[in-house]
Amino acid sequence: MAKIRITQVKSKIGSNKVQKATIEALGIKKMNHSVEKEATPQVLGMVSKVSHLVKVEEI
């Protein structure tokens, strides 16, 4: 399975509760914080819900 790096590039202020919870569930703590995850269907679905707040890179 491929790994991806997810980086928050836009503030979650003004986002709804579901999007804020999704960012926290991905393990992102603050702006410009990156996490590395396996590219499973569950993680890719979470990323698609907050795609306007994060940057995704394949490792």
TrEMBL record:
Keyword DNA-binding: no
Keyword presence, tRNA processing: no
Alphabetized InterPro entries for the sequence: Ribo_uL30_ferredoxin-like_sf, Ribosomal_uL30_bac-type, Ribosomal_uL30_CS, Ribosomal_uL30_ferredoxin-like
Keyword terms, alphabetized: Ribonucleoprotein, Ribosomal protein
Domain Large ribosomal subunit protein uL30-like ferredoxin-like fold: 4-54
Pfam families (alphabetical): Ribosomal_L30
Gene Ontology biological process terms in this record: translation
GO MF annotations in UniProt: structural constituent of ribosome
GO cellular component: cytosolic large ribosomal subunit
Family, per entry: Belongs to the universal ribosomal protein uL30 family.
HAMAP family: Ribosomal_uL30_B
Oligomeric and partner information: Part of the 50S ribosomal subunit.
Protein name, as recorded: Large ribosomal subunit protein uL30
Lineage: Bacteria, Pseudomonadati, Bacteroidota, Bacteroidia, Marinilabiliales
